[in-house]
Specification:
alpha+beta; 7-stranded antiparallel sheet
Length: 238
């Protein structure tokens, strides 16, 4: 895609361009980062694969009446999106102990949580995305109570939908990270960012093989193959 629009922002995984007062174009990158940008690299075709997967999942969520910023997939690496002001909170939805949660509490990875756990982090690379409580969120003015309650409600519904989708293709949704934004005019809270192997922990149901960015984080190899496997199990093609 020959983009000739004004670049608004370049993040670790995407470049955002201005399309109009109410729309932006997100172009996915092949860059890969981990551990708050301390580890950097690239994954071949990651931008194309993640755009394909995320576009599909956002389309499903739109049809399931979860409001999102996704309008349509434009080309292999780009999406047309509603322009939002991102709420500076990362929402972590956990179904199993894994990653930092396992390390923090000394519980073996893959141990199922009795109930879905929702955690929050301040969206700040400079501060290392620290974990924060709902009281922190409200006292820091990051989000009001009504929107915070809606974030939790949407997050649980999104978890139910995604868990079913992945289970049907033999994948366990261990945990995932999502972000929300407020639309420019109406200030409606909607799901933003992306849903992909970059932002989800996805394990094969039978073997527990990791099919996500942990393969990059932990130098497990075959990262592109794992991402492609998720895409192909979803019956998607580049």
């Amino acid at each position: 895609m020959a983009i000739k629009m004004k670049k608004l922002y370049e993040g670790k995984a995407k470049i955002i361009y201005s399309k109009s007062a109410s729309q932006v174009v997100a172009s996915y990158k092949d860059d890969a980062t981990a551990f708050n940008n301390l580890k950097k690299g690239s994954i071949k075709n990651k931008g194309i694969i993640n755009n394909t997967i995320s576009s599909y999942l956002f389309d499903v969520l739109n049809h399931c009446k979860i409001p999102t910023h996704f309008i349509k997939k434009i080309d292999k690496k780009s999406q047309l999106l509603k322009k939002v002001d991102i709420v500076p909170i990362e929402v972590l939805v956990r179904n199993y102990f894994a990653g930092s949660l396992s390390k923090k509490f000394g519980v073996k990875e893959g141990t199922k949580l009795p109930d879905t756990l929702i955690e929050y982090c301040l969206k700040s690379d400079e501060l290392g995305d620290p974990h924060i409580s709902t009281d922190h969120i409200l006292n820091l003015g990051l989000c009001d109570l009504d929107h915070l309650e809606l974030i939790e409600e949407y997050s649980l519904r999104i978890n139910d939908i995604l868990t079913g989708i992945f289970y049907s293709i033999g994948i366990n949704l261990i945990d995932f990270k999502i972000e929300f934004g407020l639309t420019k005019k109406t200030k409606e809270l909607i799901l933003a960012d992306e849903i992909s192997p970059d932002t989800c922990r996805l394990w094969d149901l039978k073997t527990n093989k990791k099919l996500d960015k942990d393969r990059f984080r932990r130098d497990l190899g075959n990262v592109e193959d794992a991402y492609i496997e998720v895409m192909e199990r979803l019956n998607l093609k580049i």
